[in-house]
Amino acid sequence: MKKKSIITFIATSLVVLGLASQNASAATTSQLPMDTAVTVQKDKTYKLYFKQAGRLRVKNGTQVSLKNNKTWNWTLEPYSAGKNYTEYYLRKGTYYLTADSSAKISMNFVALTKIRKNLETFGETRKHNNNAPSTANKIQLGQAIKGFTLMYNYDNPDYYTFTLTKPQKVTMDISNSPIYQKSKHNITTKMRVSISTGLSSIGTTLTPSYVDINGRTNKKITWYLAKGTYTIDLANLYGRYNFQLTGSEDTDNNIPAETEIKSIKKTSAGLEVSLKEAANADYYRVVWRQKGTKSAVSEQASSTLTVTIPFSKLKNDTTYEFAAQGIHGENYVNYGSTMNHDYYYGPMTDWSYYSYKED
């Protein structure tokens, strides 16, 4: 009887050990070493942890894939896959490597802080960055720009500003390189681009109010702009980008001339802003905000020289600042509702002030 029990115990133990061994082969292994050739197995998941953002090169990397973590499970998009290695750009954190088949690989990791001079036109730090319109980087038409967003916790959004000395058609040729592959619920692969008048992106945004560039792709965006200063806002992408602005003459002469705010007065219908006629303008756009603030402006547009702002959009006993511009194009209502038309923008006027008080 004792002998049978011992045999049964040994057999059971072997089964348990076999199951444990089988589970262990599918389990996540410890951190893989850098700069050393290692063999990765098809049925295993390998953990990688990086203390800071950087560039990872995997020799013989076409046979492996990386995911960012077990919660989101997003697959990383290689920046390039050459004959000698596959290259990734990574935020700091934990990643998981799996192999399509057993393969011998080696990996090299370099912190972005050591190589970013070759990857960014304007290097960003926590103290010195272009995350606000007030610190936008000044650029020129024709200048090639490259950079990152959201590779650190302090590099989003990115603002750039440029000045036109005459009316021009301005085209942005931009390439989007997300670090993750595009998927249904992954918002990190999408770059949002917008442009605004002046040195502020608040409220004076031009149509289209934004353009989304999703996944690894190249896109051209065109604006028809008057003489003046403009600010570009790039946001939301986890990854690299590069772009270039080019300008050409407005050969059709469609960009409106400058308008002027002639008067602001109360009427029974609302606050009436009277404007000077501007050549080539089909619509007139008035923007306003509380004087002395940097809050978002409101907007009202009209196809006549009179733009009426409803009292419901104003607060009692408040001084507002107003600006206006002419717009050439069809069916303009406001920048958020018409996304599929080309609009030609006249220069924005200086601010005019009005103290609103209910009767």
Your description of this structure?
The protein is mainly β and 359 residues long. It folds into three domains: 27-114, Jelly Rolls; 120-249, Jelly Rolls (Sandwich), CATH 2.60.120.380; 261-356, Immunoglobulins (Immunoglobulin-like, Sandwich), CATH 2.60.40. It is 8% helix and 44% strand. The chain has helices spanning 2-26, 112-115; strands at 28-29, 38-40, 45-50, 54-59, 64-67, 80-81, 85-90, 93-99, 103-111, 137-138, 144-149, 158-164, 168-178, 190-197, 211-214, 217-225, 228-235, 239-249, 261-266, 271-275, 283-290, 298-302, 306-309, 318-328, 344-345, 352-356. The protein has a five-stranded antiparallel β-sheet. Strands 10-12-17-14-15 form a five-stranded mixed β-sheet, with no helix packed on it. It is elongated and about 80 Å long. The relative contact order is 0.11.
What topology, given as strand order, has the largest sheet?
Answer: 2-9-4-7-6
Task: Give me the secondary-structure category.
Answer: mainly beta
Q: Indicate the mean pLDDT.
A: 83
CATH fold category name of the largest domain: Jelly Rolls
Question: From N to C, what is the helix and strand string?
Answer: HEEEEEEEEEHEEEEEEEEEEEEEEEEE
Number of domains: 3
Show the helix and strand layout:
Layout: H1 2-26, E1 28-29, E2 38-40, E3 45-50, E4 54-59, E5 64-67, E6 80-81, E7 85-90, E8 93-99, E9 103-111, H2 112-115, E10 137-138, E11 144-149, E12 158-164, E13 168-178, E14 190-197, E15 211-214, E16 217-225, E17 228-235, E18 239-249, E19 261-266, E20 271-275, E21 283-290, E22 298-302, E23 306-309, E24 318-328, E25 344-345, E26 352-356
